[in-house]
Amino acid sequence: MKNFKIITSKDNQLIKLAASLQGSANARKEHNLFVLEGLRICDDAISSGVIFESLIVSETAYNKYSNSIENFSEFSKECYKIPDKLFTKISDTMSPQGIIALAKMPQRNTEIKKNGRYIALENINDPSNLGAISRTAEALGVSGIILSKGSVDPYSPKSLRASMGTLLRMPLIVVENFCEDIKNSGLRVYACVVERDATSITDVTFTDGTVVMIGNEANGLTENTKALADSKITIKMSGKAESLNASVAAAISIWEMMK
User: Fold this and answer.
1) 54 strand-pairing partners
2) Which neighbouring-strand residues pair with 147?
3) Domain spanning 5-104: which CATH class is it, in words?
């Protein structure tokens, strides 16, 4: 196992950096770093080819998870051990396992394949929804996720945990101008909406070169985005239900697009 440097002060610069990365999307962008917390997601990250800039473990975790930590240390540039009480200052979970890694933002392929099948998310705010959608997209073989710049940070701790590591593997394209970039993608564009005159999703035959757009949890797709669609589609509902959770709507849309 690599040598682990000891940190005991809450004023240490690495401790301050880890805390800021946990809580601030701006800090993550400024430093081009994000946080991975816990055994499972650190293991997933390594499996996805992520190299850790720093590995920080609590004293208890160092002894309790020695085999896993030894493996993580081989993929870490620097390794640190800190007191349990200090670890709670940088953890984002209620019952921390005592393992945190800092990693650089991956360089992603931003090419949208003309024969691909994509799910596009406009202004998604809930990290749990983004995580759930990414898991469904990977499981069903979607070519990638197109995400508007105004959506939740895919590298937030909550997004990464909800995705169970999928956001580290799934092709993810964050676009500056959602409407313009979707319009210029060369894909056939479907807007998933809650409108009576929209075509039922079950009546659509999806082909390669397709993107289905899902909107904000509270407000749906913006009017400008709906206007650029080649077709509006809807998920027919029974009873008194007026709308579906964004992740559920995305899951149904992905299933119909990929079946």
Assistant:
1) 78, 102
2) 121, 174
3) alpha beta
Q: Give span(s): CATH 3.40.1280.10, the chain.
A: 117-258
As a whole number of angstroms, the distance between CA 159 and CA 152 comes to: 8
pTM over 0.70: yes
pLDDT tens digits, 146-204: 999 989 999 999 999 999 889 999 999 999 899 999 999 999 999 999 988 999 999 99
d(CA 162, CA 128): 5
Query: Of 42, 33, 106, which is closest to residue 72 (Cα–Cα)?
Result: 42
Q: Confidence band (pLDDT; 50, 70, 90) for 240?
A: low
Distance CA 35, CA 54 (A): 10
Going from the C-alpha of 177 to that of each of 5, 123, 127, 174, 237, the distances in angstroms are 44, 12, 21, 9, 32
- Residue owning tokens 């992603």: 108
Please write down the long-range contacts of 104-107, taking CB distance under 8 Å and 24 or more positions apart.
104/32, 104/33, 104/51, 104/53, 105/28, 105/32, 105/33, 105/34, 105/155, 106/50, 106/168
> Cβ distance 51 to 89 under 8 Å?
no
How long, in residues, is the chain? 259
Residue carrying the six token digits 């990290």: 127
Nearest to 59 by CA among 1, 3, 7: 7
- Residues 112 and 189: beta-carbon distance below 8 Å: no
CA nearest neighbour of 110 among 51, 184, 208: 184
Question: Domain 117-258 is of which CATH architecture?
Answer: 3-Layer(aba) Sandwich (3.40)
Amino acid at residue number 69: I
Q: Are 212 and 119 in contact (CB under 8 A)?
A: yes
